[in-house]
Structure formats: structure tokens, C-alpha cells
Amino acid sequence: MAITKRKRPEAENTADVEHFIAGAPDSGQAVKGVKKGNKQQISLTISPELLAKVDALAAKMGQSRAAVINLAIYQAVEKE
Description:
The protein has helices spanning 11-22, 48-61, 65-79; strands spanning 34-36, 39-41. By secondary structure, it is mostly helical. The protein has a domain at 40-80: Arc Repressor Mutant (Orthogonal Bundle). The longest helix is centred in the C-terminal third of the chain and has 15 residues, at 65-79. The protein is rod-shaped. Residues 41-80 form the Ribbon-helix-helix protein CopG domain.
């Protein structure tokens, strides 16, 4: 019996293997946060004093805390 070299996989088979590996649950970078509809939930740390001011402004505007924070971020980004 003669010794033969192993055949190399074809390019299309290599692409299939790469696609299979990329589909694994632990492949790639995990996206942080939780998706809620078309928005992304994040974690934010605020000093108690600033949080009290945000809550007071939210009550004055009749909005939620999240709405006031979103509005402030939007205005800061648009001002840039």
C-alpha cells in the first residue's frame, strides 16, 4: 500500500466551515446591553445629587426619568 498525501479542502468547503464556526453561540463579540424594540438598554451611574435634579426636572416636565435623560443626551449630541 502506497502512502498518499491528504487532499486539501476546496475553497467552497472552507467557506462553509467558516460560516459554521461563525454561527456558534460563543463566536465573535457579544453585544452589551439588552435590546428593547429599536432601542438599546444601557447601564448608567449618576451621582445622587444629579439624580435628584433629574427626577425634579422629570416631575416638572411630566416626563419619565429615562425621557429626560434621553432628551438631554439628544440635545448634547445635536449641539456638537
